[in-house]
Design a protein that fits this description.
With 274 residues, the chain is an all-alpha fold. It has twelve helices and two strands; from the N terminus they run ααααββαααααααα. A hairpin with a 5-residue loop joins β1 and β2. α5 runs parallel beside α8 and α7 packs antiparallel against α12 (246-272). The longest helix has 31 residues, at 78-108.
Length: 274
């Protein structure tokens, strides 16, 4: 990333401008340039994981299971049930990878953000730029998986096209909160906590079977986690089973994005500017 790119925004002089220079695209540009030397195998591995789940469980196991009920009580094929869930998981994984592991290295070893904040960029520029870059991976995974769903006939309604912006919202929420959490981590061992949280969310957030198989008190716990909201939102759109409750799922991620951006911005300012 050239010095001229970083200095396109006005110089920080305090107040709001000390937090925001209006130039997050320079952070995205730097990430894309750096990605040219990265291994694309790592990128594509994140895409194929949910595809393998869909092939083995949705198509293979689905032939034995048959139809399953959604949260609204309507029945769909098992493949059509888990495909939107895997789409949400795919977006989550893509966003989380870039907003945690990559951010952790840049923050603690590459000292990249320290250099960025020495320019006209503010903490919000850096936070938003990194999150937008993470969204690109989430969008890549989601679009490819949506094409596979369409080819297999698993998009059951025209509203499935709205799953793409929904997935971006999900990825934005996970990326913003993931970066906020990562800013507090000091060692690679702390990063294991990320997988410790993500794996149970993947297994229990009504991704592979209906949430109604659990006792009611466990259902309430699951409903507090973000992936369940993402799964229900995308599943409603791809199956065409819509309800007013879907707006609560949208609101959940809007709040998640706001909280993540605020905490990340404050943390970067505390680390490098105060």
């Amino acid at each position: 990333m050239s010095a001229s790119t970083l200095t396109d925004a006005p110089t920080r002089v305090g107040g709001v401008r000390a937090l925001w220079a209006g130039n997050p695209q320079s952070v995205v540009q730097r990430g894309l340039i750096a990605a040219r030397s990265s291994s694309w195998i790592v990128v594509f591995s994140g895409f194929f994981e949910p595809v393998f789940y869909l092939a083995s469980m949705g198509i293979g196991l689905g032939a034995i299971i048959g139809d399953v009920p959604t949260s609204s009580g309507e029945e769909v094929s098992y493949a059509a049930f888990i495909a939107p869930a895997l789409l949400a998981v795919s977006a989550m994984n893509g966003a989380i990878y870039d907003s945690t592991w990559n951010v952790f290295f840049k923050l603690n070893y590459g000292k990249l953000y320290e250099g960025m904040l020495a320019t006209s960029l503010g903490p919000l520029d850096v936070a938003l730029g990194e999150i937008l870059y993470a969204l690109l991976r989430g969008l890549l995974y989601a679009t490819g998986f949506m094409v596979i769903m369409q080819l297999l006939g698993l998009n059951l309604a025209w509203t499935a096209i709205l799953a793409i912006p929904a997935v971006l919202l999900i990825a934005f929420g996970f990326a913003s909160l993931g970066m906020a959490v990562t800013s507090y981590m000091k060692t690679f061992q702390h990063m294991d906590w990320i997988n410790f949280v993500l794996l149970p969310m993947f297994l229990f957030s009504a991704t592979l079977y209906p949430i109604t198989v659990y006792p009611e008190w466990i259902q309430r716990i699951i409903m507090a986690f973000p992936l369940w909201h993402g799964v229900e939102l995308v599943r409603g759109l791809t199956t065409g089973i819509l309800s007013p409750d879907m707006w609560w799922h949208v609101l959940y991620f809007v709040v998640m994005i706001g909280v993540g951006l605020v905490f990340t911005t404050k943390r970067l300012r505390a680390l490098f500017l105060d």
